[in-house]
Amino acid sequence: MQHDIREEIKRLKRQMGEDLCILAHHYQQDAVVEHADYVGDSLELAQTIGRVGATHIIMCGVFFMAQSSAILAQDTQKVYTPYTKAGCTLADIAPAYMVEEVLRSLNAFHEVIPLAYVNTSAEIKAICGRYGGSVCTSANSTQMLQWALSQGEAVLFLPDKNLAFNTAREIGLSRGEISLLERGPKKGIRLYVWPGLCDVHVNFRKEHILHIREMAPKARIIVHPECPPEVVELADAAGSTSKIIKYVTQAPEGSTIYIGTEIHMVNRLRQRFKGKKEILPLFECSCRFMDMITPLKLYRLLKNIDEAWVVEIGEDIKKDAQLALNRMLEVCNS
């Protein structure tokens, strides 16, 4: 059955030719990734949209990624997702009405620029556009936080608090300049932090690292910056999925590397460097939402693409969200 689906996807791809482009996030399972024309992290996939000429774009990732693709796509292009219910707890923890209310309250005290992690809805990205802010990914969070701080008196970073604290530490903000949102506005605060967490990366603990240090003291450890700050501090390195891949690629042969991120990507790297480097998970966990995208759902979408639901963003939201996303791309490409 799986073999038949695999071959049918290949056949439908050949049939559609250059009219089709399939994008996939690194956290997708291998059986989906093998059909992708482009595989990347959130920043790489966003940058890819502007270079894609296909009429039909399929985003194999969680729903906010499909929304971002629809925001950046041309009017002549259609964006699809194999499964609309592949959501994100992190994105859901920052509803648009609440974010706007918080921004109004903070801006009554001093000028606050919103910076939304890409793991947010189109409505949140639109709010960032309207309030002079932007978005960021784990690959460019330091660059974008520095940019946002230069635009106002303070920044509201949402929704991932671990990424916020880890990024703030990296650019040298003191603990006294950072405040969790529930403490309210205060003089001297430069970074307000929304209290969200990633379902996957919250599972990594400093005990995992301490155990490896004792068991395999020569091993290297790299983690994603959505991990808790105490985990990032103990690791040898931290970075986005693209940085993790680069770190593993550049490590000397014979290295043992433990990775703290989603297991599908870790396993893919383990297979890629098998016999040359030992790649192991810091702790094994997968994203249940990413796992909702399957070859069967991709096949059904391709088979019925002319009748498939298209990801569409209302013009009022799209315009402001596009502004926020384009600000990020301009800062990163400058």
Please, could you describe this protein's structure?
The chain is of the alpha/beta class and 334 residues long. The protein is 44% helix and 16% strand. It is built from 15 helices and 13 strands. The strands form three sheets. It has a five-stranded parallel β-sheet with strand order 6-5-7-9-8, sandwiched between helices. Strands 2-1-3-4 form a four-stranded parallel β-sheet, covered by helices on one side. A four-stranded parallel β-sheet has the order 11-10-12-13. The radius of gyration is 20 Å and the shape is globular. The mean pLDDT is 94.
- Can you summarize the main beta sheet? 5 strands, parallel
- CATH superfamily assignment of the largest domain? NadA-like
Q: How many distinct beta strands?
A: 13
Integer average pLDDT: 94
Q: What's the alpha carbon Rg, rounded to whole Å? A: 20 Å
Structural class: alpha/beta
Spatial strand sequence of the major β-sheet: 6-5-7-9-8
CATH topology of the largest domain: Rossmann fold
| Count of individual helical segments | 15
Task: Briefly say what this structure is.
This protein has 334 residues and is α/β, with parallel strands linked by helices.
Can you give keywords for this protein?
334 residues; alpha/beta; Rossmann fold; 5-stranded parallel β-sheet; 4-stranded parallel β-sheet; 15 helices; 44% helix; 16% strand
